[in-house]
Amino acid sequence: MRIKALSAAILIGLAACGTDDAPAPATTQQTGDQPATAAPATSDWFVVNEDAQTVTIDLIAGQTSDNNYWNYNGLYGGRGTITVPEGYEVTINFSNVDPAMAHSVGVGERQATYPTNFSSPQPVFAGAMSSNPTSATQSTMPNQSETLTFTADRAGEFALICYVAGHAATGMYIDFNVSADGQHGVQM
Fold first, then answer.
1. For residues 101 and 105, what is the distance between their CA atoms, to the nearest angstrom?
2. Fewest CB atoms less than 10 Å from the CB: which of 52, 63, 90, 188?
3. What is the mean pLDDT for each group of 10 consecutive residues in the chain (188 residues)?
């Protein structure tokens, strides 16, 4: 009886292994020394008009419950990068759907770590910061919105930052690049 059971187990195991008829997994080949990187993609909340040299970003604070709703369009902690061309007029339609907390947004210098409190934050571009950005009671409250318009007049690596106390320190920021070569899009 043991031999029959052992034989059956071996036959089932061999059958499960299959044959060599299955196609080999696809491989990719790279050339050059640099690994391939994804080009910025487009998103329905990111619209570029090259003829008018404008970018419109619909930025939603608290869009998902990720990071305790402290995110922009579900992105936080440097995950995701928005890239706009240098010289373009950028409009950020900022809205807050976090059910409980005020948020702000501003284009600031990218930092390795962010402080818990900002005393007097200044945007890197004139007009690139929401009203009362450090206030937990006077910045953009739940179910409110604000529109920012500015010209991205110098190339560099910056960040979209929430300046309400503790928010950036716990990850409420995403990278914001201004490209000198006209590149634009969203990387996630």
1. 13
2. 52
3. 45 42 38 45 87 98 97 96 98 98 98 96 98 98 98 99 98 98 94
Would you give the end-to-end CA distance of the chain in angstroms? 59
Owner of token pair 């934050």: 121
pTM: 0.78
3-state secondary structure of 82: strand
Pairing of strands 89-96, 54-61: parallel
Question: 103: which 2 tokens?
Answer: 């948020």
- Give residues with Cβ within 8 angstroms of 27, minimum separation 6: none
* Among 1, 82, 85, 75, CA closest to 51: 85
Q: Provide the CA 70 distance to its chain's centre, in angstroms.
A: 12
Closest residue by Cα to residue 158 from 186, 177, 139, 141: 177
Contact indicator for 147, 131 with CB cutoff of 8 Å:
no
Domains by residue range for the chain, with CATH: 40-187 (2.60.40.420)
| Distance (Å, whole) CA 162 – CA 120 | 13
Q: Is the CA virtual torsion 139, 140, 145, 147 positive or negative?
A: positive
Task: Report d(CA 155, CA 119) in Å as an integer.
Answer: 26
CB 151 within 8 A of CB 180: no
